[in-house]
C-alpha cells in the first residue's frame, strides 16, 4: 500500500514521504536562487539543495537520492520533497534566498541572506 505524502512539517513515520512548502512569504521564489537547509537537533545548519532562477539544481551528496527541490511557477511556490524518511532527517528545515537570480555554488549558508522561519520535522522509527 502506497503511503500518502504528508504536506508541511510535523511528526512523521520513517519510510514515509513529506512535501515542505517554503514559508518565506516576502520572497518570490520564481525570481531568485532558492535553497533548502536543515538543522538537526544540536547540529549546525547544512545546505541540502538549491535552484537558480533558470532551474539549475544542486544537491548535497548526502541527500540527492531522496530529496527533490522544485518550483511551481503558477503558484509562486517552492517545495522540498523528501521520500523514504529516516530518523536522521529530523530537524528544522529552512528555505532561503540569495536575493539574486543565480546561486553561488556549494549551497553555503553565508550566500543566503533571506530566510524563512523554518519548519520542524520529526521522524520516528
Topology overview:
Layout: E1 5-7, E2 10-13, E3 17-21, E4 34-39, E5 45-51, E6 57-59, E7 67-72, E8 77-82, E9 91-97, E10 114-115, E11 119-124
Count helical runs. Answer: 0
The geometry reads as globular
How many distinct beta strands?
11
Helical residue percent band: under 10%
Largest sheet: 7 strands, mixed
Radius of gyration of CA atoms, rounded to a whole number: 14 Å
What series of H and E elements makes up the topology? EEEEEEEEEEE
Classify the secondary structure makeup into a structural class: mainly beta
Strand content range: 35-45%
Low-confidence stretches: none
Spatial separation of the terminal alpha carbons? 18 Å
Nearest-integer average pLDDT: 92
Short description:
With 125 residues, the protein is mostly beta strands. 0% of the residues lie in helices and 44% in strands.
Please characterize this protein's 3D structure:
With 125 residues, the protein is mainly β. The protein is built from no helices and eleven strands. Strands 2, 4, 5, 6, 9, 10 and 11 form a seven-stranded mixed sheet that branches. The chain has a four-stranded mixed sheet with strand order 1-3-8-7, with no helix packed on it. The relative contact order is 0.30. The mean pLDDT is 92.
Amino acid at each position: 500500500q502506497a503511503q500518502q505524502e504528508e504536506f508541511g512539517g510535523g511528526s512523521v513515520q520513517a519510510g514515509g514521504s513529506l512535501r515542505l512548502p517554503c514559508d518565506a512569504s516576502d520572497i518570490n521564489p520564481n525570481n531568485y536562487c532558492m535553497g533548502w537547509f536543515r538543522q538537526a537537533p544540536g547540529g549546525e545548519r547544512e545546505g541540502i539543495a538549491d535552484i537558480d532562477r533558470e532551474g539549475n539544481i544542486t544537491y548535497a551528496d548526502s541527500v540527492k537520492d531522496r530529496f527533490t527541490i522544485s518550483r511551481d511557477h503558477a503558484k509562486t511556490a517552492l517545495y522540498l520533497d523528501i521520500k523514504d524518511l529516516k530518523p536522521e532527517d529530523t530537524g528544522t528545515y529552512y528555505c532561503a534566498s540569495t536575493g539574486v537570480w543565480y546561486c553561488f555554488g556549494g549551497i553555503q549558508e553565508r550566500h543566503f541572506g533571506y530566510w524563512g522561519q523554518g519548519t520542524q520535522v520529526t521522524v520516528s522509527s
